[in-house]
Each structure stands twice: as structure tokens, then as C-alpha cells.
Design goal:
This protein has 142 residues and is mostly helical. The protein has six helices and no strands. 80% of the residues lie in helices and 0% in strands.
Length: 142
């Protein structure tokens, strides 16, 4: 009975990874906005912003993190969703989803905390996950 409920109500790691990618974009936008408010004040934030802010310091890193998370989500979500709707999940797609979640978390923290080598390695592994998932969406793996 318990196993039966787990399979009916359980959520696959691939589905969790799709939601994770969206939440990561949202969280990055929130962090970028808060850092903008702290650096420039609320008057700037509610202005017409005709003078672009400097992209130096944490605000710049937060802005670049947000942009990269949007790009990554656009590469990750469509093939992951295609795998889900076509019911072609596998142990490899599960591993790719788990790795994607882990590496994107490391990427974001490394970018915000100025740890460039770790950030670059996490980015590379995340890109491999995106590529592998795109291939699995077209060529199902058992």
C-alpha cells in the first residue's frame, strides 16, 4: 500500500529539476533585485532607470547569475519536459537531473561568492547535463 501511494503521488527527479530550474531563475531575480535596492536605494529602483547601473561588485555578479540561469533553464526545461511527457525517463535521465540540480546550485553559490574555478566547472557539468538530456529527449535511453 505504501509503495502504491509513492508511485501514484511520487514526483520524478526530472519533474523536480524542471521546477528547480524555474525556482532558481526566480530566486536569482529576487537576489539581483534586493542587491540593486541595497546598492542604489528604492528611489532608483522605482525610477525610469534611464541611467544603467554599474555591473561591478555583487550586483553585477547577481545580474550575470540571473542571465545565466535564464539561459540554462531554456536549455534544460524543454528536453526534460519532453522526456517526462513521452514517458522516456531512465536511470540516466534521473542521474542527469540530479547532477543538473547539484551543479546549478554550486554554480549559483560560487558565482555569488566569487569562486571562479568552481563556478566554471559547475557551469561545464551543467552544460553536459543539458546536452545529454537534449539527446535523450530525441533518442530515448532504456
Amino acid at each position: 500500500m505504501i509503495g502504491q501511494h509513492a508511485s501514484v503521488y511520487g514526483t520524478s527527479i526530472e519533474a523536480i529539476s524542471v521546477v528547480f530550474a524555474a525556482v532558481l531563475v526566480w530566486l536569482s531575480a529576487l537576489v539581483q533585485h534586493v542587491s540593486n535596492v541595497l546598492a542604489r536605494g528604492s528611489q532608483y529602483v522605482i525610477s525610469d532607470r534611464s541611467v544603467p547601473p554599474s555591473l561591478a561588485g555583487f550586483f553585477g555578479r547577481a545580474t550575470r547569475t540571473l542571465a545565466n540561469n535564464i539561459e540554462s533553464a531554456l536549455m534544460w526545461m524543454p528536453p526534460a519536459m519532453l522526456i517526462l511527457v513521452s514517458h522516456h525517463t531512465s536511470s540516466i535521465s534521473q542521474l542527469a537531473a540530479e547532477t543538473y540540480i547539484g551543479t546549478r546550485t554550486v554554480y549559483v553559490l560560487a558565482y555569488w561568492l566569487k569562486i571562479p574555478v568552481v563556478r566554471s566547472m559547475a557551469w561545464l557539468v551543467g552544460m553536459v547535463c543539458c546536452g545529454a538530456t537534449a539527446v535523450m529527449a530525441i533518442v530515448p535511453v532504456s
